[in-house]
Design goal:
Protein name: Thiol:disulfide interchange protein DsbC
CATH superfamily of the largest domain: Glutaredoxin
Order of helices and strands: HEEEEEEHEEHHEHHHEEH
InterPro entries: DiS-bond_isomerase_DsbC/G_N, DiS-bond_isomerase_DsbC/G_N_sf, Thiol:disulfide_interchange, Thioredoxin-like_sf
GO cellular component, one term: periplasmic space
Strand content: 15-25%
Shape: globular
Organism: Aeromonas sobria
Number of domains: 2
CATH architecture of the largest domain: 3-Layer(aba) Sandwich
CATH topology of the largest domain: Glutaredoxin
Number of strands: 11
Length: about 220
């Protein structure tokens, strides 16, 4: 099976981006990480299945959720630029924060990020725009350039970076902003107070690898 060929077939037939192709425990069935979530296909792309796959022999491990986590880890590892990182002095967790214009304009943004750092959570910042045409406005908008948010915008190749973040957010399955992606690939949707986010991240860290619970 040629992973590249299968990507092309599925992308052409379904009109979606395919980022990841991996063999599943079932012979001849492949997991596809796509912009619409995880799908399963035969080697030729003639049959596609959407749903959840459980490994009944290993405590009902949710292989679909595991696939989504792997897709997010892979996506973040392949970012072609260095995101702005707000490093916690005593790091316990690291998260990627995807935020849109509404979050960018919130006056509470800077205190929230500082609070997260104080709790031991380092934050990688990924501003997300809806359309590529908005990139130039974001990079020149006086409100967005005003301190403190100016420090969180890409300082070099600003427009290009924001456009890349559109594709990255789709790759990671980010559909609601703000969104947080942990270093192990878990996705947390929506606004979370620093204390709530710390509790969620602690729970993820303590959860067994075979956990089949749904993501937040």
């Amino acid at each position: 099976m040629d992973p590249y060929a299968l990507k092309e077939v599925i992308s052409t037939r379904l009109g979606i981006a395919v980022y990841l192709v991996e063999q599943t425990p079932i012979s001849g069935l492949y997991m596809l990480g796509t912009s619409q979530g995880v799908l399963y296909s035969d080697a030729k792309g003639d049959y596609v299945v959407q749903g959840i796959m459980l490994d009944m022999a290993h405590d009902m491990k949710n292989l679909t959720v595991s696939g989504l986590r792997e897709q997010r880890r892979l996506g973040l590892s392949q970012v072609s630029y260095a995101p702005i990182v707000l490093k916690a002095p005593d790091e316990r967790h690291r998260v990627a924060l995807f935020l849109g214009e509404h979050e960018a304009r919130r006056r509470q943004l800077a205190p929230t990020l500082q609070h997260l750092q104080a709790l031991g959570i380092s934050v990688e910042l990924y501003p997300v725009i809806e359309h590529a045409a908005q990139a130039a406005d974001w990079c020149s908008d006086p409100l967005l350039q005003h301190a403190p948010f100016k420090a969180y915008l890409p300082q070099q190749e600003c427009s290009e970076t924001l456009i890349q973040n559109i594709g990255l957010s789709k790759w990671l399955g980010v559909k609601v902003l703000p969104a947080w992606v942990s270093s192990d690939g878990n996705l947390v949707r929506g606004y979370q107070s620093p204390e709530q986010l710390l509790k969620i991240l602690d729970n993820y860290a303590e959860a067994p690898a075979s956990s089949s619970s749904s993501e937040s």
